[in-house]
Write a structure and sequence with these properties.
Distance between the termini of chain A: 25 Å
Mean pLDDT of chain B: 83
Structural class of chain A: alpha+beta
Order of helices and strands of chain A: HHEHEEEEHEEEEEHEHEHHHHEEHH
Number of helices of chain B: 15
Strand content of chain B: 15-25%
Largest sheet of chain A: 10 strands, mixed
Largest interface: A-B, 61 and 62 residues
Number of strands of chain A: 14
Helix content of chain B: 55-70%
Helix content of chain A: 40-55%
Structural class of chain B: alpha+beta
Distance between the termini of chain B: 25 Å
Oligomer: heterodimer
Low-confidence stretches of chain B: none
Shape of chain B: elongated
Largest sheet of chain B: 10 strands, mixed
Mean pLDDT of chain A: 84
Number of strands of chain B: 12
Strand content of chain A: 15-25%
Low-confidence stretches of chain A: none
Number of domains of chain B: 2
Order of helices and strands of chain B: HHEEHEEHEHEHEEEHEEHEHHHHHHH
Radius of gyration of chain B: 29 Å
């Protein structure tokens, strides 16, 4: 084997070329990792919103809470279902109304669709209080137009600040509290009293109801009973699966676009690496032939050139991942296609993404180094030593 | 030999493998750039094809809240309004959720006029005569192979149930969004709805006599319904459509950033090649300087080399762009994102300009080094 220090030195000798090549590879890794991080962030946010021990009841076939209806009667009937857990003699069930209100963006101006969730007092205290935690202010009093806002909503829209009020649907929604919910989609919502929200928006029914199952095994029974009830056109689903599904279109969009871009870019970066490595080989024809004459085998020469290209790729991967990991501090607010409302997402950095990005970089390095390595290995020894360059 | 011929020879003939790889690299980068700009353009296309003499009236609470159909007569009486029509977003699913396309229930007689709809196949009379019929945009018909007389089944989501519509016409309009949309009779929708959902419309589209009077008309309409149960929000069709973009503005910004990154990658590839070429020719540069060429000649030579490589790489990219765009558009459509990725001459011109400029900029650093070289050092140095 030709020692690694030989490669390191030869890289250092052509600093500009090496830096340009590694930078190009690094940028591709960065774009690739950033796209994966974003798609993952979307999925994590929505996954965190649901819980596996909960079931959500929606209108049959409804793809989002927005297009779902659940009457007060249905809420009463299914809250009393044997599958629903009890707490202090009350069923752990939260009937909710979900509506979209258009608010004005505070800083940049322009309209944005914001989800408002109407909850009942029992529903909040028995079920939602476990995931939703007040961080400032106090809980809204029931039967008033007081609201609490998610962390991601705060300061983003006109009136969305503690002590201020949001004027919408001919009411003043006074903001009395700010909550967090473990980075979930709830943090992009405004929570109000369900009855007040219904009155303001001329609704007579809820959108959905989430219930805590007394045990996960009860889900199938509940599903069957909800499905079979002829009075209501409803279905029950595991809550976390429902939310995960609603991240699908946006996450897929980011992945499809992201992969297409990454592949394009990778092709360019591979060519860049190839140019550099061809030049490294061409500039060292005599050197390589001398190595061969000294007894190094063809495959050692081949490996050595590949290693050099890999070193560049690994430098690029490290730089790209480092840059991408800095994105974890950045959040991203965009319209979630399936809920039609604006949600805040984070770039989610995970070890798996770093590994994928590094594998991607190594593949680029290998492809870039392959042809130049083959040329180096095939150099005719005698002529090369004689003829020089 | 003139300086320009020297630049051409240096750029293309000296090291053919490297030239080929560089051109290919630039071509791929240019292709990626075109691709991203086209995606951005497609994003904006919908709002750009909106008509300036059309206003949209919707519920002030948000787009998902309806308005009473009775507002139509009151809006019609506002001075400056020539015609009023309305539509409801239907949001049905055709076979599978991935087959996404827009469907609206419309008031057919007025909507056909307000949206300037032309019939490519079938006829207006046939559509108006049959309440259970629909018309489909030309592109949509091509995508799913809809023909006159076909029955299209839709699974209602906003309006639950199984709906079936018979195709009475294939349509188009100057408004490009029409070509990808299905329209059917609002009356048909209304008669099937439960009492509490009857006689509600998603939005009114208002045609004004004079676009310059729009601000006054907007104010007059909103004043009309102020402090009522359903207050309205009126805006131009363009700003109505743009709000869908601002919702996704973060994605648009991300694509903008990525399209800048690809230019940086292009610059790195070109810069690398140029630096190598110039370094290998150091002694030649020295000779040129020794026989009287000035540093600015050397710089000019390097710059034009960069620009030439950028331009030709960009051209190669443009040749590849068309088929690649069409293929990607198809792939996206099958993943459920119907975007029309057309090859636009303006985007191509922008890309060529960008590639040439990047080529020149990339040569700036190597060019400076080459121009600064002392003649004696350059002549002595052997690579």
């Amino acid at each position: 084997m030709i020692p690694l220090s030989y490669n390191v030195r030869s890289i250092l000798r052509r600093r500009f070329s090496a830096a340009a090549t590694a930078a190009a590879l690094g940028l591709v890794v960065f774009v690739f990792a950033a796209m994966l991080m974003l798609a993952q962030g979307v999925e994590e946010t929505l996954r965190a919103t649901g819980a596996p021990q909960n079931a959500i009841l929606l209108r049959k076939g409804a793809t989002t809470e927005l297009t779902s209806f659940l009457s007060r009667e249905a809420a009463k009937v299914f809250a009393a279902d044997p599958a629903v857990a009890q707490s202090g003699g009350k069923p752990v069930a939260s009937p909710e109304l979900m509506v979209i209100l258009q608010l004005e963006r505070a800083k940049v101006g322009g309209p944005a669709n914001v989800a408002f969730r109407g909850v009942t007092q029992d529903g909040f205290q028995l079920l939602r209080a476990e995931t939703v935690r007040l961080v400032e202010g106090r809980l809204p009093r029931p039967a008033t137009s007081e609201v609490m806002i998610g962390k991601a909503v705060r300061g983003r829209y006109v009136g969305a600040e503690l002590g201020q009020s949001i004027r919408k649907a001919r009411r003043e929604w006074n903001v009395v509290g700010v909550f967090e919910a473990g980075g979930s989609a709830f943090e992009s919502e405004v929570w109000a009293d369900a009855d007040q929200l219904m009155q303001a928006l001329n609704r007579t029914a809820y959108s959905s109801m989430t219930v805590r199952l007394s045990s996960p095994a009860e889900l199938e029974g509940l599903k069957a009973r909800v499905d079979a009830d002829p009075r209501f056109n409803l279905e029950a689903r595991r809550e976390d699966l429902y939310y995960e599904e609603s991240s699908g279109p946006l996450a897929t969009f980011i992945r499809v676009l992201g992969s297409a871009i990454a592949v394009f870019f990778a092709f360019g970066a591979v060519l860049g690496a190839m140019i550099t490595m061809y030049a490294q080989v061409a500039g060292r024809v005599r050197e390589i032939s001398t190595l061969r004459a000294l007894g190094f085998r063809r495959r050692s020469v081949l490996a050595s050139v590949l290693v050099e290209s890999l070193v560049l790729a690994i430098i690029g991967a490290a730089a790209g991942c480092l840059l991408a990991s800095a994105l974890s501090a950045v959040s991203f607010s965009t319209m979630n296609f399936s809920s039609f409302s604006e949600m805040k997402f984070r770039f989610h950095f995970a070890a798996g993404i770093a590994i994928k990005a590094s594998i991607f970089a190594i593949a680029m390095g290998l492809f870039g180094g392959m042809l130049p390595a083959a040329r180096a290995a095939r150099l005719p020894i005698a002529e090369s030593i004689k003829g020089g360059e | 030999m003139t300086l320009s011929r020297l630049a051409i020879r240096n750029a293309f003939l000296r090291n053919k493998t490297r030239t080929f790889l560089t051109l290919l690299g630039v071509a791929v980068a240019a292709l990626a750039f075109v691709f991203l700009r086209t995606v951005l353009a497609a994003w904006y296309a919908n709002s750009e094809s909106s008509a300036s003499d059309r206003l949209v009236v919707r519920n002030a609470i948000s787009l998902t809240e309806p308005l009473p159909v009775s507002y139509r007569d009151r809006i019609s009486q506002v001075p400056g309004v020539t015609q009023v029509t309305f539509s409801n977003w239907f949001g049905g699913i055709y076979k599978d959720r991935r087959n996404f396309f827009a469907q609206f229930a419309i008031d057919a007689p007025t909507a056909l006029e307000v949206f300037d709809i032309r019939f490519v196949e079938g006829s207006k009379e046939a559509f108006l005569a049959d309440r259970s019929s629909c018309v489909v945009g030309k592109k949509l018909a091509e995508r799913y192979g809809f023909k006159l007389g076909d029955t299209i089944p839709l699974q209602g989501d906003v309006y639950p149930g199984e709906w079936r519509f018979k195709v009475a016409g294939i349509i188009e309009s100057d408004d490009s969004s029409v070509a990808s949309t299905l329209y059917f009779h609002w009356q048909r929708l209304n008669e099937e709805l439960p009492a509490e959902r009857k006689n509600l419309v998603g939005a009114f589209t208002v045609k004004v006599a004079d676009a310059s009077q729009s601000p006054r008309v907007i104010q007059a309409i909103d004043d009309l319904f102020a402090n009522s149960d359903a207050e309205t929000h009126t805006e131009t069709e363009r700003s109505f459509r743009l709000q869908f973009l601002t919702g996704s503005s973060a994605i648009v910004a991300a694509i903008e950033v990525v399209s800048a990154v690809v230019l940086v990658i292009m610059a790195l590839i070109l810069g690398n090649t140029l630096a190598m070429g110039l370094r290998e020719r150091t002694s030649e540069m020295g000779a040129m300087r020794a026989i009287g060429f000035l540093p600015r000649h050397v710089r000019l030579l390097a710059w034009s080399e960069g620009a030439l490589l950028g331009l030709f790489g960009g051209l190669a990219g443009m040749i590849l762009a068309r088929p690649v765009l069409i293929a990607t558009g198809k792939a996206l459509a099958s993943a459920g994102f119907p975007v029309t990725l057309g090859f636009r001459p303006a985007t191509a011109a922008l890309t060529l300009l960008a590639a040439t400029t990047v080529g020149m900029l990339a040569s700036a650093f190597p060019a400076r080094t080459a121009a600064r070289l002392e003649v004696v050092t350059a002549l002595r140095r052997q690579e």
